[in-house]
Amino acid sequence: EDKEKKKQQVLFVSQDYILPFRPLELNHEYSVLYTIEKGDKKETFEQNFSLRRLKPDSSQNEYHFIQIDKISELLVDGKPVDSRAYKVAEKTAELLYPLRIVVNKYGKWVDINSYYKLKERWENQKEAIKELFDGKTFEMLAQNIENAIEDDKSLVGLISGNWFLRAYFNGIHRAYTRRFERERTLYFPAAAEVEDIEFSIVQKVNPYLNDLNLIEVTQSGKSEDENTEEHYHAQYYLNPNNYLIESLHLECDLIDMRRKIKVEVKNLDQSKISIDNAISLLV
Which phi and psi (to 5°) does residue 48 adopt? Predict the structure, then answer.
């Protein structure tokens, strides 16, 4: 007697095996954990965020507006920040939130939608931040911030280094081949001191749900630069009912730099996922 449970198939859209991006139900809170290893040293940064799709004024098919809020304080190595440097950085980072971004139909972050609100926020908070610094330090910090938010392009450049945004809105919702995979070029800001690293990866989706009733998507590849040894690997677990990300684990191994970064994201709602009754979308 065959006692093995029959695996449930992933429901794709059309014969192009599309894994759709459907953020209509996106209103979740996530824990975000960064781990940075450099040589023998390891440091962790942890914070919780909320993601919410904003209801559009008109029909949105090609893009969506997503609002991101910080909902907890920053923990460094599991403890609240107590050094002045981190408190200053945290205070400065508050200027970005709530942050509104533009995400395309592939689930990839492409732009911001809160530039003028952020500039207004800076003007309102400038005096409070000034009290944290001596005169010369504040002048230098203020100049750096004002340079970063000088225009939309500068601000996009600043925000594009955010690992959480780049990992979550990575563009995994795409069409796949009959082998349930596709090759693509991926850019990721693995190190602050260098430009985005270009990786050549293979992105795969398991055509069957795993034991937790989740869709599994993996990305694996290496740097396009033949002169460096850099590896990239990511695993995504999606809710089969709405195709939203329940959790992800991303790792960049920068071997030549003796540096490794990990990004772990988990939906804080731990409720069990059951599968909706649905017909196949392969039409």
Answer: -105, 145
